[in-house]
# Entry
Amino acid sequence: MAEIKKPVAKTAAAKDPKLADPVASSIDVGTQEMIARAQKLGIDTVFDRAVQMKPCAIGIQGICCKNCAMGPCRLPLPKGGIEGKDTRKGLCGATANTIAARNFIRMIAGGAAAHSDHGRGVAEVFLSVARKETDAYKMKDPNKLLQIAPFLEVAVTVEEDGEIKDRDIDEIALEVAEKAVAEWGKPHGNLLYAKRAPAPLYEKWKKYGVVPRNIDREIVEIMHRTHMGVDQDYKNLMKQGTRAAIADGWGGSMLATDLQDVLFGTPYPLQAEANLGIMKEDHVNIIVHGHEPILSEMIVATCQKPEIIEYAKSKGAKGIQLGGICCTANEIFQRHGVPQAGTYLQQELAIITGACDAMVVDIQCIFQNVANVAECFHTKLITTHPIAKMEQDSVIHIEFDEHHAVEDAEKIVRIGIDNFQNRAADVMIPQYKASSIGGFSVESIQYHLGGTFRGTYYTLNDNIINGRIRGVAGVVGCNNARTRHNEAHIKVVKELIKNDVIVLTTGCNGIACAMEGLLTPEAAAVHCGPGLAEVCETVGIPPVLHMGSCVDNSRLLLAATEVVKAGGLGKDICDLPLAGSAPEWMSEKAISIGHYFVASGVYTVFGLHLPTSGAPVFHDYISKEMEKMFGGMWDLEADPIKHAHLMIAHIDKKRKELGIDKARERVLMDMADRQALEG
Ligand code: SF4
Ligand code: MSK
# Structure
């Protein structure tokens, strides 16, 4: 595990107000070193740009409307707040509530579209595989196929001659693929996966009219309703926002996760390392960045081929070092133990090392500026997706297609290998990395924390009921250059585990935790309260369970559903001692995730700010009123320690409602009782 050393000395930033202070920009020493190196080389990074450009004070509050050419209409809150009636309005008369709600649900539409289009891409590849149009991919987890088939109303058995027989697996795969693809645009019925939610939650969705019809329709309807002069009631706008967010979490994202698991394998715990220090000076370094494992799976397989490794050696390298950034990192970490090179805010820095021979990107969270940084080095930047190109001439575009996936992947990897010889002598890889264990799918948690027959979440529930585990937190989401890189992520997570709250993580929070060494069983003894430490030590798991990428937040929904099913903690997700958090969020996807957590009954706290502060009535609606409807609510707290304690207070409130608060007091206050329980 990397030892945190004294931060690097301040650089040019100390003298130049246009440059970021590396130490103030990140808690990670390797990141600080790379920011300083970039500044020394005269290359700007997101950290410097965040110093140079301040956010718009009105936009940040969610009360700027540019939905028609009579605007933009800006509705700042009067100094001293609103007294009496809120008379603010745009040229058309749109109120602050209408504008904030329209902006908010357009963010949901953006996020849901990104996740769901990713899911559609996977479903289409899955269909090609099921039709046997490509042999580049195989279905690695047929058991998962059988497990998800009934949720898509696909029978796994058939009655023949009065006997129940297993159906042909290829037939099931084809039907699952066709049903899955149809979920995006079917003309009738409702989203099939919505019924995977606990029955009381599904009933609430029915009662409030938010059961999604199909995934695309809910997103399109947001764009229609938020067009100038359509829906002008913030409650009705949020109704559609809720329906689209559910279509993301329980639809597009969940289908992406499930179909990826069938194709590429359901994750089980694997060990790796994380941070820029995973790059190797004497190896060809290929960094994959983005989201869809369709591409990265093939790159992983290609880099393992003996003839490709030999080819790298023929060019003078000792081998190939593959590393991931953002959710691609999470995907290949959880299924192959490929190391994570860094989070969202480290994408430019991987190139600043001078050791990145190729950066291969697909979709989402990719800075256009990586092309400019790559131009300052020998790095080849390769875009691969037809919907995600860059205007810079230096960028190579190789369109990746499942029908010739093997050839495309090999072509891409060979570009990286050929480029190894073009490296300049001045390579600087920060020597910081930490060990980590990831791959905690719903199924593998069931195995580790299951009952005697490993069929349920019984042991987890039992430990929550007896108080060793105080509750469960889902801590997820991005980095944001408006706040110190990884600081809030790590402070929130450490405060939670210190207070016996087990953390489920995805996205860039998962990478931040990996970099900090929190994804190891050993972290339990160092950072956890006594109850959680005891459980982690007994079962041999980390206190922070890495559950994957952004679309894998759907695993958190299903894990919560499994906890409900295992019994003893209420009948619905909103009854559980559970809270959600995104301490450093930045993307529209985070808003969609946040809202499907809320609509699924989860108390959800965001860091930084929310684009609702300029419309207090609307903000109250998505917090207090939503809680009355779905049992979950939005909250905001920028201070990471207070943020964690809001979550803990909610967990304690739920423990009290469940009547298990006393159990925890006994457990923590009476050591003899605990020893007796152990016996
Ligand atoms: Fe202004 Fe209304 Fe046009 Fe929005 S829709 S820009 S509030 S006139
Ligand atoms: S990659 S959406 S920065 S978590 Fe999924 Fe990280 Fe946020 Fe992108």
Remarks:
- The domain at 438-678 is CATH 3.40.50.2030 (Rossmann fold).
- DSSP finds 27 helices and 18 strands in the chain.
- The chain has three domains: 96-264, 270-422, 438-678.
- Confidence is low (pLDDT under 50) at residues 1-9, 674-679.
